[in-house]
Write a structure and sequence with these properties.
The structure is a single chain. This protein is α+β, with helices and mostly antiparallel strands. It has helices spanning 2-33, 41-47, 138-147, and strands spanning 57-60, 64-68, 75-84, 87-96, 105-112, 122-129, 132-136. It has a 7-stranded antiparallel β-sheet with strand order 1-2-3-4-5-6-7. The radius of gyration is 21 Å and the shape is globular.
């Protein structure tokens, strides 16, 4: 009987500690995410990453944030950033080639930040046309955007 009471007490205390740590983690992550919106655009431009437009809608989650244009239109319209605690981990941007709700042509830019777990940063461009998906170079991405008269905001 004593063992059962002790075990229940230990499990209860561990549950309370986990609840407190989870709450603190959420508060810290939320504070960190607040610094990576439009106010981080100068750094994005240095890194040649698309910017967050100040008029975009913001959706915050525990470990990532998304921004998007209120209305789907041609051009840069979506960004997602993920975090490892207070470090930026990854950003993904979408450039659309029409104003249709269902996009059949999308240029995606994925950027992995150099951080405490990754020694170098890296960028991958993916061009999706219908069912065809190709990994392309930055130069090819730039030429596709220019040919379609889409502003390169990086």
């Amino acid at each position: 009987m004593k063992i059962r009471v002790t075990l229940n007490l230990v499990v209860g205390i561990m549950g309370i500690i986990a609840f407190i740590l989870f709450g603190l983690s959420a508060i810290i992550n939320s504070r960190c995410q607040n610094g990576f919106g439009a106010e981080f655009n100068a750094r994005r431009k240095q890194l040649k990453i698309p910017v967050v437009h100040p008029d975009w809608r913001v959706y915050k989650h525990d470990d990532y944030t998304t921004w998007e244009k209120a209305k789907v239109e041609k051009g840069h319209g979506f960004k997602m950033a993920t975090y490892d605690g207070c470090e930026l981990n990854f950003e993904e941007d979408h450039y659309w080639f029409s104003s249709k709700k269902l996009q059949d042509t999308v240029l995606t830019m994925d950027y992995w930040y150099k951080n405490s777990r990754r020694k170098i940063d890296s960028t991958i461009f993916t061009f999706l046309q219908g069912n065809n998906e190709d990994t392309i170079t930055r130069q090819k991405a730039d030429s596709i955007l220019a040919a379609n008269k889409i502003n390169r905001d990086y």
